[in-house]
Write a structure and sequence with these properties.
mainly alpha, 7 helices, about 0% strand, about 240 residues, single chain
């Protein structure tokens, strides 16, 4: 796989084979994280079915597990930055290199383009704490002060409020939102599989193999080297 570039953090697509290998790795990551996302949605569904009251801490444990693969999937599909490892970037490269690499790709309909755009915008919002969020939070706090004029804010005391239980409506709403996101991820994954099949000239397949023990040393090395490369400390292979 080619990693030689004037900017060592940016992958350069010199050949069709580069694009094939790159897409293969993105698919591998997307499938792995979607498997986890599917598993945690089932866990949330079971939590809703089996409980009449929803303890805050128990719900948050499931939500935190859901958010990790969701954030990875938002990046893998919706990141459009220069060195993003994402389906959006793969599509961009496919269009740029179509004639040079003599490749074909599927045409996205309006619904699929809107899904990709939605994930792009969601990813940009979810992965940053923006002024927009702080401004809305501040307006909410000011409305609270109107309803409770006897309270002073802000003061020297930073008060953190927690709830022991959550309303069922809130939990079900978040579950439905996760199911919608799951549907988006599944649709885009199928599109990426079709694009990959066109790249390699044959129908692709997914096989899942379970090993007795995970080789965490190799995975840690990949992550550590990737971070070094991102920080500019690793210049070449």
């Amino acid at each position: 796989m080619n990693t030689q570039n004037k900017d060592p953090k940016v992958f350069e697509f010199l050949t069709k084979e580069d694009l094939i290998m790159y897409t293969s790795l993105i698919l591998e990551l997307a499938i792995r994280h979607l498997d986890r996302y599917n598993r945690y949605i089932k866990e949330l569904e079971k939590f809703i079915v089996e409980n009449d009251e929803f303890r805050y801490t128990e719900y948050k444990e499931i939500e935190d597990k859901l958010n990790t693969p969701q954030n990875h999937l938002l990046n893998l599909f919706g990141d459009n930055s220069k060195n993003a490892a994402s389906y959006l970037r793969i599509r961009r490269i496919m269009k740029e290199k179509k004639e040079k690499f003599n490749i074909d790709y599927i045409e996205h309909d309006q619904d699929n383009r809107e899904i990709l755009n939605h994930l792009y915008k969601t990813r940009n919002y979810e992965h940053h704490v923006t002024d927009s969020k702080i401004m809305e939070w501040g307006l909410y706090r000011k409305r609270q002060l109107v309803a409770m004029p006897y309270i002073n804010w802000p003061t020297e005391e930073i008060k953190i409020n927690y709830s022991e239980y959550l309303e069922r409506e809130s939990v079900v709403h978040n579950y439905e939102a996760a199911k919608q996101m799951q549907d988006y991820f599944k649709k885009l994954l199928q599109l990426m599989k079709k694009d990959y099949s066109l790249l390699i000239g044959k129908s692709m397949k997914v096989s899942r193999v379970t090993h007795a023990v995970s080789n965490t040393n190799d995975l840690f090395q990949i992550s550590e080297n990737g971070q070094s490369r991102h920080l500019g400390k690793r210049k070449k292979m």
